[in-house]
Amino acid sequence: MTTDAPADTTEVAAPPARLRRRHEFLRAAASGAQHHARAFKLQMAARPEPEGPARFGFTVTKKVAGAVGRNRIKRRLREAARLAGVLAAREGCDYVFIARQAALAAPFSELCAQMTESMTRLNGRGAKADRRNIKDRPGAP
Length: 141
Description:
Structural class: alpha/beta
CATH class: Alpha Beta
Number of domains: 1
Number of strands: 5
Helix content: 25-40%
Distance between the termini: 85 Å
Strand content: 15-25%
Order of helices and strands: EHEEEHEHH
CATH topology: Ribosomal Protein S5, domain 2
Strand order of the largest sheet: 1-4-5-3-2
Number of helices: 4
Radius of gyration: 18 Å
Largest sheet: 5 strands, mixed
């Protein structure tokens, strides 16, 4: 047996932390911070306890595809979050991806690019991300 073979130095990134409870998804929806991409809609909410890694949640409705298509979309989004999303995500924030039908047919590299761009835009808004529509604000005295 020879030992001339190079050692496998590829490191596999751990899967990102995920949202699992309904109230976590609802908090992200209520925050008002969102960005629309072709393949998904991204919602973001800062957690009350800002320490800890970013967490991700994925939603695919029955309108989008059948069971096989929904599972495939979720797998693609999870993998894109593992590869590209973790780099653009901000610590202490929760991100929810609401998939569209385009997520099934989009090239994977485009899906990763959309994910990175959406997170970068949401993170760049900072405190402005919590603002509501002008109609929701009380009138000036």
